[in-house]
Amino acid sequence: MDNLENTGKSGLDRRTVLQTLGIAGVAAGATGWHTDAQAAPAANGTEVPDYFVDAKLTINGKSYSEKIDPRTTLLDFLREHVQLTGTKKGCDHGQCGACTVHVNGRRVNSCLSFAAAHEGDEVTTIEGIGQPDHLHPMQSAFVEHDGYQCGYCTSGQIMSAVALLKEPIGAGDADVREAMSGNICRCGAYKNILAAIQQVRQGT
After folding, report:
1. What is the CATH number of domain 14-34+54-128?
2. pLDDT tier at 129 (50, 70, 90 boundaries)?
3. Which segments of the chain does DSSP mark as H helices, in order?
């Protein structure tokens, strides 16, 4: 699964973000300031640290602007700043795929990507591909084939499955399994997930 670096853009590139992170680490160590949930600091009237950066993101077609700690991941920005909690935090190390979103149409692990590096990108979350009264075909197929049990990994599974519809992979079941290998289902609903994906791919 790709971890986009966003080089050559008008916004913050990877090098700038990493340099800012170093400054943030020094400042945080000197002041004793740290954050857990990355709650929006300006909203509660507290002083915004000098090393915070402007993050302007387009998510599901809507613009968001916040001052954030440069260490804030895209996952935490989605969940804690704009309350799009359909994207789940699983391992937080890019190994389970529960946090999968689309960035410019490509699937990425949002826990591995800095929010501030995505200015100018189009971010799509599970909330952006369908609604209860108008499901995406992949969502409908997951329901039809019981492609979930506890449901915690489901949004990431669906986001990967939707992305692979446009990826150059083979038609066989083994090809789909390989393409979906970055998304773990601890309940073991893989057979049903595969059936749902193949139904949509085959247009049946």
Report:
1. 3.10.20.30
2. very high
3. 14-31, 74-76, 137-144, 154-164, 173-179, 190-202
Residues 6 or more apart whose CB falls under 8 angstroms from that of 127 comprise: 60, 84, 86
Least confident of 42-51, 62-71, 121-130: 42-51
The CATH 3.10.20.30 domain(s) of the chain lie at 14-34+54-128
**Residue 74: pLDDT band with limits 50, 70, 90:** very high
Given CATH 1.10.150.120, say whether it is the number of domain 137-202.
Answer: yes
Domain with CATH 1.10.150.120 in the chain: 137-202
Q: Please tell me the total number of residues recorded for the chain in this structure.
A: 204
**Is residue 101 within 8 Å of 116, Cβ to Cβ?**
no
Q: Whose CA is closest to 101, among 155, 58, 20?
A: 155
Gap between the Cα atoms of 140 and 35, Å rounded:
38
